[in-house]
Amino acid sequence: MKKAEAYWPLILLMALIKFVLPIFLQSPVYELQRDEFLYYQQGQHLALGYLENPPLLSWLGWISSWFGGSEAWIKFWPCLFGAATVILTCLITAELGGGRFAQFLAGLGIITGAYMRIHFLFQPNILDIFSWTLAIYFLVLYVNSKQVKYLYGLTLSIAFGWWGKYSILFLALALLIGLLMSPHRKIFLNKHFWFAAGIGILLMLPNIIWQYQHNWPLLHHMDELRETQLRYLSPADFIKDQFLMLLPLTLVWIAGLVWLLKNPSYRFLGIIYLTVIILLMLGSGKSYYALGAYPMLLAAGASAWESFSQKRRWIRFGLILFIILLTIPFIPMLLPVWEPAKLAGFY
Q1: Dihedral sign, CA of 48, 54, 58, 59?
Q2: Cβ–Cβ under 8 Å, residues 110 and 295
Q3: Which of 55, 28, 22, 24 is nearest to 39 (CA)?
Q4: Distance between CA atoms of 20 and 200, rounded to whole angstroms?
Q5: Distance from CA of residue 346 to its chain's centroid?
Q6: pLDDT tens digits, residue range 131-155?
């Protein structure tokens, strides 16, 4: 598949829309959500780790406190990483051969669906989804160009993700499995892959040492989650939620999965997605833990729809209209757009 040109004016416009949309849609009557208070307050007590999460998000909260710690400066980070995820998704689309329409469709996918809520809240998920998408972007760049610098970008992305949310381990393991099951397995014979992996481990080491010094809070937290939440999750509910979270985009990401599995060059990405789903189900992971795996499916699906609709342009308008019309009724369920009484009546 030949790489397409990235249409930067379109990409930046969509990133801007992604950045400002939560600001305009939320009702001014609400304060921060309780978890947002937690992560912000952690940042007032700087450390290399915390009981429930890595420290990077809290460090960002500490930076917000330089500017007064207002709600706007705390919400700046989810808006920023949401916009950055739009850009990365569009760039992956271009690498997969998707042109202007495909890049628009893929970017729209990150603006709508569950990402509308994820990128409204100051929570580790914003770093998780960004780092997963960044890692996939560097991996696709390497596959397309064979330039070793992208291997270092890949491991830096995973190291960044480790400091944001430990669930990056699911992606790292899925990447290894996906590459081993593809012709790209010879990547493991490249010395730069191991050099890059070593650098990545070194970058993660301060937090790993902190975990050791504090008797592995991560394991304690996971045990607590299993007892209080994860034990009640079922595989059926997990699969159901994969469709509900991105309901307006189902036609896009399913097309993307099929397109990847049928394409020998990028089949490993489809295997990575399926491996992530299996690992999360086996580990009783929450359904939204998989959201980092969908930008690549949206990129592939957008490319597939663009190719399919080359001589059927009406399909493009119909698909965009379908996504928008199906998104609108869900907005009050994703964002606090009205005061509590009106939202309660809507629910």
Answers
A1: positive
A2: yes
A3: 55
A4: 33
A5: 29
A6: 999 999 999 999 999 999 999 999 9
